[in-house]
């Protein structure tokens, strides 16, 4: 997979962009500091529970919400569902340590903008933020692959196409690889 530099995405971000909902204090504060090292990114709020996160999103409609999947009060999936139901203009990135297909499937069914694992670097998370602000989707390739180990109604070629979408390739790039 070709790596994309951060500069490829930087022209699309504007100042006040994100809210972070993560119950682990050290991880939450580290994410804030590392994200804000990018001049064009500002974290508007870092919150430890889902109820406060949803309230903040309702009142402020930040460009991006970075949500832990399991946080006290209301899960990241529940917040995502409310955001979609109310048609807020907030892009949602779910971050998780869990490689559970059920969580992933629920997130995709609710049109999550990105679903990524916490084992990634903050630079990768920043790239994901840039992508979702541009309207692109990003899903963890390892989670997409796990879905294909069970009985799958998709043909092999359809699975390859779906996997490449998860890797961030465009339709044109996928066609170039396959044909």
TrEMBL record:
One of the record's GO molecular function terms: DNA binding
Gene Ontology BP annotations: phosphorelay signal transduction system
Annotated InterPro entries: CheY-like_superfamily, EvgA-like, Sig_transdc_resp-reg_receiver
Segments forming domain Response regulatory: 17-133
Entry keyword set: DNA-binding, Phosphoprotein, Transcription, Transcription regulation
Positions carrying 4-aspartylphosphate: 68
The keyword Membrane appears for this protein: no
UniProt-listed SMART domains: REC
CDD domains xref list: REC_DesR-like
Keyword Phosphoprotein appears in the UniProt entry: yes
Protein name in UniProt: Two-component response regulator
Organism lineage: Bacteria, Bacillati, Bacillota, Bacilli, Bacillales
Record gene name: narL
């Amino acid at each position: 997979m070709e790596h994309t530099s951060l500069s490829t995405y930087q022209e699309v971000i504007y100042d006040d962009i994100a809210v972070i909902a993560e119950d682990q204090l050290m991880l939450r504060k580290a994410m804030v500091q590392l994200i804000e090292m990018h001049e064009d990114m500002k974290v508007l709020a870092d919150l430890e529970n889902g109820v406060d996160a949803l309230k903040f999103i309702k009142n402020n409609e930040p460009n991006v919400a970075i949500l832990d999947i399991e946080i006290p009060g209301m899960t990241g999936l529940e917040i995502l569902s409310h955001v979609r139901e109310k048609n807020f203009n907030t892009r949602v990135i779910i971050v998780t340590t869990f490689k559970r297909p059920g969580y992933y499937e629920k997130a995709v069914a609710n049109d999550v903008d990105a679903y990524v694992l916490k084992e990634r670097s903050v630079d990768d998370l920043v790239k994901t933020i840039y992508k979702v602000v541009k309207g692109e989707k990003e899903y963890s390739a390892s989670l997409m692959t796990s879905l294909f180990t069970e009985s799958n109604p998709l043909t092999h070629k359809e699975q390859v196409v779906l996997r490449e979408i998860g890797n961030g390739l465009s339709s044109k790039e996928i066609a170039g690889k396959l044909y």
